[in-house]
Design a protein that fits this description.
The complex is a heterodimer of chains A (294) and B (408). Helices cover 29% and strands 24% of the residues of chain A. Chain A is an alpha+beta fold and 294 residues long. In chain A, helix 1 packs antiparallel against helix 5 and helix 5 (140-154) packs antiparallel against helix 6. Chain A starts with a strand and ends in a 5-residue tail after the last strand. The model of chain A has no long low-confidence stretch (mean pLDDT 88). With 408 residues, chain B is of the alpha/beta class. Chain B has 12 helices and 17 strands. In chain B, strands 15-16-1-14-13-12-8-11-10-9-17 form an 11-stranded mixed β-sheet. A 6-stranded parallel β-sheet of chain B has the order 4-3-2-5-6-7, sandwiched between helices. Chain B is globular and about 65 Å long. The model of chain B is unreliable at 1-18 (pLDDT under 50). The chains are: A alpha+beta (294), B alpha/beta (408).
Chain lengths: 294, 408
């Protein structure tokens, strides 16, 4: 994750006073830090680094929470025809986004849809090729927001707003009695998301490495950076993890918009040459204001 | 333990001193090898217990097979962190299940006596978090019972197993600081120390740290760990302590000060100046030993030596890399420093890859595997705990308290 998280917790309508709410905020921050420590590919002692460092073919046992995340990733990979795939970490290495030099001329070592195997009986994960590298970067923040949402519910907090790195957003409850939480997701075109107990995942091409405007979002099917005109994808879903994963998948495969929209989310796709009338929006949940649907 | 703010620390150093990062040659893997996985149970899976669970999963030849907590919600959360472990709501049930060879105890301080004694009687290896106890009576009872325990009994004074602290102690012991001048430590962290809960009875049970009858405040809970670093380095214990404290920020009718200061005095006139607060995080947690040739600062994941301008150059310094820190030139002691420089990582410095509790647990398991002695025994921890108890009493009474080790 490695990004700034910000939390606003409103004690109104909760069983806690100001001190209690501050203590809850402390607990939530610890939970965020804990998952950062476990999922960071930049920490050699994180759980994901240990999975990636284990010998290919040798199962690595993980805890129940992490195994559930792996299963969720597996199912999201299937839903998106492989456009979202945590094995895309392999490509981040090949394309020089990690500490290794760029090796993009090399062929894909393995079909990334078969890059790893999960064993539910033993809660183990096995990498199926030595060059496979798992990376939860496209879902970790959303996954943590879902855990925070669960904790907020447990503590009886009614209204809260949390974001991780500005790209994963949880609007829990409402901003006040009459308004949902409002997030400006684009100023050109002018687009706001109104969140009432719902999450937002935003995927944006960044780290462009060359004049072809290829960014850091990898297409697991071609093995190359996603090559399209998508500039930003905004996806809203009750689960922040799913919103994050769908946003990444749509950055790679914008043609999936209608299928994923049917899975109960709102989607806005902005392209590099977006004019207001060209924004592609499917607003099943009614979160976008001023939507110019086409 | 929290990291010290290295940049702040270095930028405040005087221009005439040089900073050396003391970094041990860390082994990437644990030092021990067991014939069969060690079956470990964890008692108490609150915040500290969950950290222990997380670190145990990193260690080889270890299988967390059981855990115990009287709080159902915490137990459920703990079980999610260890696949295959069985949950218990009493220590007796866990010990009699036959599922554990060793137990890590991370319950609240005032329950250590009851839990530890049952584990000693069961003959399992025990890692007991520190402070050992909240009263001298409990401290003595644990210490006495540990003497006849069959297993390897380790106390969780984490500095003693910390590779940075071990390396820096070597410099201290070989006269790098020369004449000891004084010692200072702080623990600064902004947090209200409250464990939230919707249920009043549960909140009361979980917030033992804010109850003076069940805990020893900042001096006991944090000071004990930090005072022990000085005990271990100097081989001496303070004989009396003056303390004071007050609530500076968390005005929620608490009876435990959120900010304290203590001066611990040795019989030769040396002192430890200690302050701790829950109202400000500046500087984090660290200890400093000042000497006439150098000062050693220890920040749990990092350690440095600041040499005086008139201190003699030691042989190893010629092999060390040099770094520029604001106005000061530092000498870096890092294994493989040339390689790190090539990777552009030298300026970032090198800290320990794991938190302190990892090394304490690794040391304990290493002692079990090799039938050896852990870095910190219960008797050493009992003395450190006695210092923490006395310091807290001094804080609560704004008084000078004599420290009595006679009963230990």
């Amino acid at each position: 994750m490695g990004c700034r998280f910000e939390l606003i917790l409103d004690p109104a309508d909760s069983p806690h006073d100001q001190f209690g709410v501050e203590a809850i905020a402390d607990e939530l921050v610890e939970l965020i830090q804990d998952w950062h420590d476990r999922l960071s590919v930049f920490s050699p002692t994180s759980m994901v680094s240990r999975i990636n460092a284990a010998q290919a073919g040798v199962p690595v046992r993980v805890d129940r929470d992490l195994f559930e995340l792996l299963r969720l990733c597996d199912s999201l990979c299937d839903e998106t025809d492989g456009a979202f795939n945590i094995a895309a970490g392999t490509l981040m290495h090949m394309h020089g986004f990690r500490e290794h030099a760029c090796q993009q001329e090399q062929p894909l070592p393995i079909d990334l849809r078969r890059a790893y195997t999960l064993e539910p009986e033993t809660m183990a994960v096995t990498r199926n090729h030595p060059r496979v590298s798992l990376d939860f970067g496209a879902i970790a923040k959303g996954f943590v927001l879902d855990l925070l949402s669960h904790e907020l519910r447990e503590y009886g907090i009614q209204h809260a707003f949390v974001h991780g790195g500005s790209s994963s957003v949880l609007g829990y409850g409402n901003q006040d009695e009459t308004h949902p939480w409002r997030v400006l997701v684009s100023d050109t075109p002018d687009l706001q998301a109104h969140l009432s107990s719902i999450s937002l995942g935003i995927s944006e091409h960044a780290g462009r490495v060359n004049a072809e405007h290829r960014g850091h979002i990898m297409d697991p099917q071609t093995g190359k950076p996603a090559d399209n005109q998508v500039e930003r994808v905004v996806c809203s879903h009750p689960s922040a993890a799913i919103a994050d994963a769908y946003a990444t998948a749509l950055s790679v495969r914008p043609d999936l918009i209608d299928r994923l929209h049917e899975h109960g989310c709102s989607i806005a796709i902005l392209t590099t040459n977006t004019e207001p009338e060209k924004a592609c929006i499917r607003d099943r949940l009614g979160v976008f204001t001023n939507p110019i649907s086409n | 333990m929290t990291d010290v703010d290295r940049r702040t620390f270095l930028s405040s150093a005087a221009g005439t001193v040089a900073a050396m990062a003391l970094v041990p040659n860390l082994n990437a893997f644990a030092r021990y090898s067991l014939n069969a996985p060690l079956r470990i149970g964890v008692v108490g899976v609150g915040r500290q217990g969950r950290e222990i669970l997380g670190e145990l999963t990193k260690l080889p030849d270890v299988d967390v097979t059981a855990m115990c907590d009287t709080d159902a919600r915490r137990l459920a959360a703990g079980l999610r962190r260890a696949s295959g472990a069985e949950g218990f709501d009493t220590v007796d049930a866990m010990l009699s299940s036959g599922k554990v060879d060793a137990v890590a105890v991370a319950t609240s301080t005032h329950t250590h006596r009851e839990v530890a004694l049952r584990c000693f009687e069961a003959g399992v290896h025990v890692y007991l978090e520190c402070p050992l106890a909240h009263t001298l009576d409990d401290c003595i009872a644990i210490s006495e019972a540990a003497r006849s325990a069959k297993g390897v009994i380790a106390a969780g004074l984490q500095g003693r197993a910390n590779p940075v602290y071990q390396l820096a102690r070597g410099f201290y012991k070989t006269d790098s600081v020369r004449d000891p001048v004084s010692m200072r430590a702080q623990h600064h962290r902004k947090t209200n120390w409250i464990t939230p809960s919707n249920d009043a009875a549960r909140r009361e049970a979980l917030n033992w740290k804010l109850d003076p009858s069940r805990a020893n405040g900042l001096a006991g809970e944090w000071g004990t760990q930090q005072f022990d670093v000085f005990h271990w380095y100097t081989g001496k214990y303070p004989v009396k302590v003056f303390g004071s404290g007050s609530v500076r920020h968390w005005r929620d009718d608490r009876k435990v000060p959120d900010t304290i200061a203590c001066t611990l005095m040795f019989d030769d006139g040396q002192t430890i100046h200690y302050d701790a607060t829950l109202a400000n995080s500046y500087g984090g947690t660290y200890e400093v030993l000042y000497g006439s040739n150098a000062a050693i600062k220890l920040g749990w994941s990092h350690g440095w030596m600041f040499k005086e301008a008139d201190a003699p150059t030691q042989g190893w310094e010629v092999y060390a890399n040099r770094q520029q820190f604001h106005n000061d030139e530092g000498i870096t002691l890092i294994a493989g420093a040339t390689k790190l420089a090539e990777q552009g990582k030298l300026k970032e410095g090198i800290g320990l890859p794991h938190p302190g509790v990892y090394y304490a647990l690794e040391d304990w398991i290493n002692a079990i595997a090799n039938n050896g002695t852990p870095a910190c025994s219960i008797s050493e921890a009992a003395r450190a705990t006695a210092v923490g108890i006395a310091a807290n009493r001094a804080v609560m009474n704004s008084d000078i308290v004599e420290i009595d080790f006679a009963a230990l």
